[in-house]
Write a structure and sequence with these properties.
single chain, about 550 residues, alpha/beta, Heat Shock Protein 90, 4 domains, five-stranded mixed sheet, 15 helices, about 55% helix, about 20% strand, binds adenosine-5'-triphosphate, binds magnesium ion
């Protein structure tokens, strides 16, 4: 026996397998393994014992402990560790490995206690054990089996209890979810109501603005004209009267400007202005802005124009874009007392990002959404000293929407403000064939105009049947579809397309003046369709399909 070795058993017959099994259990118990691990080890060794008898006519099996428990199996003849007995044992111990011809089983032990004394005592205990009779061993195995069965039963009970708990939780959760859902549905209904009311109110407001400003323009122009006449024609005025007439003229001019601004805003908000998309040189546009706005800068404030980065030409409405940037830059210059106001443009994939930043007074979180409301101005010491009506930002935002873009702002009070305008690069949008289905020939022509430079080929269809036929024949990248048409309605055309596997994927944008609730897909309102909006919709379905 080598040092650390506990015992060795020559397995030459069935009886030795029982002994092996019993000793294994005793060693496992003494080494502090729990009941289940004791049974595992005993079973593993009884499998190994049977295997060595059939395979090699027997073996010497030695137990030793150093950190872990190692059982060395040296067969009387060659041993194949792939045999079923070893395979079964491998599932019950930590590892089955080789050392030369020997097969080694190892099993980790709880830490501590394996001192020289302890080993000596265990050796003595093992040496004193009698060989078990098959009957004893059977009894021991039965006990193990019963214990295992009890274990399984109690685990099953536990599992059942857990399941019951989980089910109860699940029922409770789904009830709660249902209640929440009902709440959400009700909330949505309310929201929809509210947003319909809001939409109406906002349309009424735009109409009112448009009408009032239109009506105000005539008298304001008259005042201006009359004041000019007083000053330039007729009797020369004495100094005091001239001063007063000049004041009338100045006020008239301010009034007319304000009225014009209101009218512009009303038009932009109602979407009644069409962008005129042309090739715009961003570099040129920014430089011109710098020239006209530089005089506005206070002392100690620089207006910096960065050269565009990665994009030179942008297809957009030059006048609208200029107005947007002028509004943002004017604001920056008004609300910055030192540092710089900076503007630049850079390519951002299929978009251009225009950024106007300043090192000015900043805008607080509470105010930041309100600044887009008409006439809203943040109260503060600077505000009193600068001119403005609070229409610049709502106007700029409406224009950006017409151009198919988005405007965002972030700001830190005392540090400055950054406005960003994201505009689509319309030249990046390319369509091959497009079918325009509408019974109104004038509107078809208008749509053709909007798609100029974007679509390679455009086909017209004057009713629903013609639309279907055109799609079948031309397999377009896009179908622009009216809803109210003779023959088949737009809804019926969509249904036919979706039912045909070859045509089901056809991209459709509904363009109509009828109610589009319940239309599945992108729908645009005929009465306020702009190129920007149409191209934005094209981009949107492109994104959706991607
Ligand atoms: N860059 C900025 N820094 C700090 N505050 C700003 C900035 N831009 C806008 N604001 C705040 O938002 C308000 C609304 O801006 P907006 O451009 O709509 O109106 P305005 O400049 O006051 O008048 P208008 O543009 O009609 O001449 C401003 O009055 C100001 O309080
Ligand atoms: Mg402004």
């Amino acid at each position: 026996m080598t040092s650390g070795e506990l015992l060795s058993i020559e397995v030459t017959g069935e009886g030795d397998v029982f002994t092996l099994r019993q000793r294994a259990r005793v060693v496992a118990d003494a080494a502090g393994l729990d009941q289940q691990d004791q049974v595992r080890l005993a079973t593993a060794l009884s499998e190994v014992g049977r295997e060595v008898l059939t395979q090699a006519g027997g073996a010497r099996i030695a137990f030793s402990i150093d950190g872990s428990l190692r059982v060395r199996v040296r067969g009387y003849g060659p041993l194949s560790p792939a045999a079923p007995g070893f395979a079964a044992a491998a599932r019950l111990v930590d590892e089955v490995s080789h050392e030369g011809e020997d097969v080694i089983l190892s099993k980790g032990l709880p830490p501590g206690r394996y001192t020289g004394d302890w080993l000596r005592n265990l050796r003595a205990l093992l040496a004193g054990l009698a060989k078990p009779s098959p009957l004893d061993e059977l009894r021991a195995q039965n006990q193990e089996l019963m214990a295992a069965l009890e274990d399984v039963q109690s685990q099953r009970d536990e599992l059942e209890e857990t399941n019951r708990g989980v089910m109860a939780l699940y029922t409770q959760l789904s009830e709660e979810l249902e209640r929440t859902n009902q709440g959400v549905v009700a909330l949505y209904a309310e929201l929809e109501d509210k947003s319909a009311q809001l939409r109406e109110a906002s349309e009424a407001k735009s109409r009112f603005l448009a009408n009032v400003s239109h009506e105000l323009r005539a008298p304001a122009s008259s005042i201006l004209g009359l004041a000019r006449m007083l000053l330039e024609l007729g009797e020369p005025l004495d100094d005091e009267k001239r001063r007063q007439a000049e004041l009338i003229r100045e006020s008239g001019r301010d009034l007319l400007n304000l009225v014009n601004e209101l009218l512009d805003l009303a038009k932009a908000e109602s979407g009644r202005i069409e962008p005129e998309v042309v090739d715009v040189s961003l570099r040129g546009l920014l430089r011109r802005l710098k020239e006209t706005l530089r005089p506005m800068a206070r002392e100690g404030v620089t207006l910096v124009v960065d050269d565009p980065d990665g994009v030179e030409i942008l297809q957009t409405d030059e006048l609208m874009l200029t107005r947007v940037l002028r509004n943002l830059l004017t604001n920056g210059l008004k609300f910055t007392e030192r540092g710089e106001v900076r503007v630049g443009a850079h390519a951002d994939g299929d978009h251009v990002l225009l950024r106007v930043s300043d090192t000015g007074i900043g805008i607080s979180d509470e105010e930041i959404e309100r600044i887009f409301e008409e006439f809203h101005q943040v109260r503060g010491p600077i505000q009193a000293s600068v001119t403005g009506t609070g229409l610049g930002l709502p106007y700029a935002r409406s224009l950006v929407a017409i151009l198919g873009g988005e405007m965002s702002v972030r700001s830190v009070v005392g540090e400055g403000t950054v406005f960003e305008v994201r505009l689509p690069r319309l030249d990046r949008i390319r369509l091959g064939r497009v079918v325009i289905a509408d019974d109104d020939a004038a509107f078809r022509t208008m749509l053709r105009g909007l798609l100029h430079g974007v679509a390679e080929e455009i086909e017209d269809a004057a009713d629903g049947y013609a639309a279907l036929a055109a799609v079948r024949r031309a397999r377009p990248d896009l179908l622009l579809l009216d809803l109210r048409m003779p023959g088949l309605t737009g809804e019926e055309v969509i249904r036919e397309l979706r039912a045909d596997p070859d045509l089901a994927a056809t991209r459709v944008i509904v363009v109509t003046s009828t109610d589009t609730d319940g239309i599945d897909g992108v729908a645009l309102d005929k009465s306020r369709l702009t190129r920007g909006e149409l191209l934005r919709a094209v981009g949107e379905i492109g994104k959706r399909d991607a």
